[in-house]
Amino acid sequence: MASARFSLLREKFGSTKKAYFASQAELKEIVDEKLANEFVSFRNRFDPEKEYQKIKESGIRVVCVDQEDYPPLLKKISDPPICLYLKGKLDLKFLADSPSIAIVGTRKPTANGIKLAKKFSFKLAETA
Prior knowledge:
The chain has 3 domains: 1-46, no CATH class; 48-97, no CATH class; 101-128. 55% of the residues lie in helices and 8% in strands. It has 8 helices and 2 strands. Strands 1-2 form a two-stranded antiparallel sheet.
């Protein structure tokens, strides 16, 4: 489900958690039947606790759009990511008052994509 659609659901239900657990009938009031069915099917086979444990064991922190430490400027873009996955030390409150840049990509990057991301990030860090 695209983050823009999920944002609509979150607005309608008042929180990410309420939107996630909305009934199929409630979802159909906002999105089409096919999408509502696909989401409920996903939700029925997805184990959030198990996935969260795997993420935590990998040293990754999850920050969702409705949490206080989600970057405020990122919330203002037209289609902000629902969640950010962070590894390493990063003070998100510091970023609120500082110019910042992020490299965003796919979960399955190509070798060339990885190479370019490393090159860009190295050059950006060099000029900071």
